[in-house]
């Protein structure tokens, strides 16, 4: 008999194909800056923790919140890379990135952005009707940010608004349609804290591109007001962050662990601004990533107390 099981004809992928696949996965991870998830995700989980006493949720809801976060993050970064690809190819800092270097193709990033958007919408559908109805608005906001530095120095605040959707969306995923306006107070205060926190450290991050932005007609707070005033406004934004986190604690009736955490976060933000000075920008990356990762993860831990 000539009959053969197809499994006998199966050939494992060659080592080179496996290596190419690994490289492609790494390229996509770098494209969407997966490590930067540490900024948004802890605040989404903190929002769940704050809502938990009155609205405990199951594992299913938590999983779909995480799926929504992955979709939103990937869609936002994909669109940002597409919108900025020509500028990134001109900027010495961003020239080594995956899209300018051709490691990933425009059509691949477009497909990733589209599929990630659908993933967010589907996750929102699985959560509740309100989240599903608001998901197109969420996508519009996170996409719109990528265009703002072309016409307004307030682009940092728009980025903060985009990131603030994480805690506000997570809250609505937990409670659904609020029964009273008071149920929205805590998430809106937390959202405001995130807006100013993100805007504050994005101003610091943008100092790396100060000369490039000026020469190419792009807008930012440092370009509009100068480096020194940019750092002062960044400090002011982080002062507002602490105020709003303080108000969140009052609204949520938090205890001593929360207040201790806010005190620690205040010190971290203070020290962050000690690292970066108008005449010394050498520690921007440490101030941007390390210290703000401490803030986001630390805040989540304070809400568990």
Q: What would the keywords be for this entry?
A:
305 residues, mainly alpha, Tetracycline Repressor, domain 2, 73% helix
Strand content: under 5%
Could you say what the CATH topology is called? Tetracycline Repressor, domain 2
Shape verdict: globular
SSE pattern? HHHHHHHHHHHHH
Judging by the overall fold, what is the CATH architecture?
Answer: Orthogonal Bundle
Counted up, domains total 1
CATH superfamily: UbiA prenyltransferase
Number of continuous helical runs: 13
CATH class: Mainly Alpha
What is the residue-mean pLDDT, rounded to a whole number?
92
Total strand count, please?
0
Roughly how many Å is the radius of gyration? 21 Å
Q: Major sheet, described briefly?
A: none
The percent of residues in helical segments reads: over 70%
- Measured distance between first and last alpha carbons: 70 Å
Protein structure class: mainly alpha
Polypeptide structure, described:
By secondary structure, the chain is mostly helical. The protein has one domain (20-302): Tetracycline Repressor, domain 2. 73% of the residues lie in helices and 0% in strands. It is built from 13 helices and no strands. It is globular and about 55 Å long. The termini are far apart. The model has no long low-confidence stretch (mean pLDDT 92).
